[in-house]
Design a protein that fits this description.
The complex is a heterodimer of chains A (427) and B (153). Chain A has 427 residues and is mostly helical. In chain A, 48% of the residues lie in helices and 11% in strands. The N terminus of chain A is likely disordered. Chain B is globular and about 50 Å long. Classes of the chains: A mainly alpha (427), B alpha/beta (153).
Chain lengths: 427, 153
């Protein structure tokens, strides 16, 4: 065991213990003491989380408070660490897809996509357009799904209860689309190395069309509930400011940067999976506060809806999988009638496929920012190493800079505006 | 070794004295840096070549080969839309490398994670403690000789 430095995260005043509870003295005594000695140490340490509802998972924040003002903040993560990166090394490449769903459980298809793209880059696979467009369409559904959960829970945190019900009404429709395509509502694993797991279901166009027809009006509904709501604007405008320089230096990605006026989006900067063929805007805001991040995500939802509409209307026909025997499972019919297909099927299922030696880093724009998959192959059937650059992990690093010096009530709003998922942080 | 077609590359040229090797594979540039020169390399990239963002720091365990650990840095230049991978090798007998936090504050948690899971120490890091695992955890799970099943290391 290497020597680990003492975890002196916060220097706590002597009269407090580390649970943040003051000693036996009554509040009255404390108050009198405070009146007598105004310059003395009078901060307290508050342990927020890991079960606090506004941390959306198991984030623990140690806050040192002076009254309602935050002097110091120290995030503590790792409560949801599941060793997924180690587990990748024990699974074949195709089996690894199922693990990616469970990393960022609010954006499973984005994670499927980045993992598949990384493996396909190593294999040099050409994916048919039909599959690429489907990937784009479902990734945008994922973005909507994630933003809707964010909107509902963020609004609840700040006190607007009813938005949650509206947002989850549409989310239900999206989950039905996922179920239609993949048979699963959340842990879809629908994108596979080499294409899609299944061909399109019958009647998907109608369901998607019904959704894109109604959704813009539903976004208007959310805006009606919130954008001009005085309580909402009072709680969010001018709250949660952090400078752009700080964010870049701390490795923040995604909507946080765009709400600070930086036009950055992997879908535009380094298009993947034929995003270059779609017409959409990257919205930005300049106010750089919680309200700007809310407006930005609302606008992103409209843009995602545009992309889905284009994908629906222009969906190219073709195969849902690449022409790569030995990597892609053969059709059921062929497997039962042709010897060669049967052999491939057996080999893929029993031992997987070999991936050429090399290392790649693939980045995509997930709803939360840049998710990156660094994959190292040693030429065997299992990845030698997979590192997951989760956007939530990168974004959470800015918490101390974001909330130090603000009031404790604003912490809830500021944290909510970051839209992190702890599964993505801890992996 | 640096292949000839990369000698002209401005990134490789700027790091030439620190880089024993470089390669361009799958359209991605990887520059290998001597472990002692990593902070200097990052500083040059940030100051002169517009690599504003450190995307991630992680490790790869090459056990039983030596030098055992590869510390991998991914950088991104927003202005020029470039990405770059730096790699420094750390032998198991040494097990430590200078921290990048003095150049990029983003390195803080990534290095803590790498320390936590690989046991590579980062010198002059502001708070090198375990981040994912409990403080009293024994062993480093992402090392290749760490067992996948069982409860004891």
């Amino acid at each position: 065991m290497a020597d680990v430095k003492d975890t002196g995260v916060l220097e706590m005043p002597e009269q407090h213990d580390d649970r943040g509870i003051t000693s036996e003295r009554s509040v009255e005594q404390d108050y009198n003491e405070h009146l007598k000695n105004k310059s003395g140490p009078r901060s307290m340490v508050l342990n927020m989380g890991p079960q606090h509802p506004s941390t959306h998972g198991v984030l623990r924040l140690l806050l040192e408070l002076d009254g309602e003002e935050i002097l110091k903040a120290a995030p503590d993560i790792g409560y949801l660490h599941t060793g997924i990166e180690k587990e990748f090394e024990q699974k074949t490449y195709q089996q690894g897809v199922t693990l990616t769903d469970r990393i960022d459980y609010l954006a499973p298809l984005s994670n499927n996509l980045v993992y598949c793209l990384a493996a396909e880059k190593l294999l040099g696979l050409e994916i048919p357009e039909h599959a690429q467009w489907t990937r784009v369409m479902l990734s945008e559904f994922t973005r909507l799904n994630s933003h809707l959960v964010w909107l509902g829970t963020h609004a609840i945190d700040i006190g607007a209860m009813s938005v949650f019900l509206y947002a989850f009404r549409e989310r239900e429709e999206i989950l039905r689309v996922f179920e239609m395509f993949s048979g699963q509502r959340m842990m879809t694993s629908y994108f596979r190395i080499g294409g899609l797991a299944l061909p399109h279901p019958r009647g998907w166009q109608k369901r998607v069309k019904d959704f894109v027809d109604i959704f813009p009006s539903r976004v208007d509904e959310y805006e009606e509930l919130l954008t001009t709501n005085r309580i909402w604007t009072g709680r969010t405008k001018g709250v949660g400011y952090i400078s752009l320089e700080d964010m870049l230096d701390l490795g923040v990605t995604g909507p946080m940067l765009r709400a600070a006026g930086m036009k950055i989006d992997v879908r535009k900067d380094a298009p993947y999976s034929s995003y270059e063929k779609f017409d959409f805007e990257v919205p930005t805001r300049t106010e750089n506060d919680v309200f700007a991040r809310y407006q930005l995500r609302i606008e992103e939802m409209r843009q995602s809806c545009r992309i889905i509409k284009q994908a629906l209307e222009g969906m190219p026909s073709g195969s849902h999988q690449a022409d790569a025997p030995g990597i892609v499972l053969p059709e059921r019919e062929k497997m039962k009638t042709q010897m060669e297909s049967l052999i491939y099927h057996f080999k893929i299922v029993s031992e997987g496929f070999r991936v050429p030696e090399g290392e790649v880093y693939q980045a995509i724009e997930s709803p939360r920012g840049e998710v990156g998959c660094y994959m190292v192959s040693d030429g065997t059937q299992k990845p030698y190493r997979v590192h997951w650059r989760g956007p939530s992990f990168g974004n959470l690093q800015c918490i101390p800079t974001l909330i130090e010096g603000t009031l404790i009530a604003d912490v809830i709003a500021a944290l909510g505006s970051m839209d992190f998922v702890l599964g993505d942080t801890d992996r | 070794m640096i292949p000839e077609n990369l000698l002209e590359n401005p990134i490789v040229a700027a790091l030439k004295d620190l880089a024993p090797a470089a390669k361009l594979e799958f359209g991605e540039l990887t520059v290998e840096i001597t472990a002692s020169g990593i902070v200097e390399a990052l500083r040059r990239l940030k100051a002169d070549l517009q690599f504003e963002r450190l995307t991630s720091v992680t490790g790869v365990d090459r056990y039983p080969n030596e030098p055992r650990f590869e510390i991998v840095y991914h950088l991104q230049s927003i202005g020029t839309k470039q990405r770059l991978r730096l790699k420094a090798r750390v032998a198991s007998g040494v097990g430590e490398i200078e921290s990048a936090t003095s150049v990029y504050r983003a390195a803080n948690w990534y290095e803590r994670e790498t320390f936590d899971l690989f046991g590579v120490r980062f010198l002059n890091h502001p708070d090198l403690t375990r981040i994912m695992l409990p403080d009293d955890w024994e062993g480093y799970p992402l090392r290749k000789d760490y067992p996948v099943t069982g409860t004891r290391y």
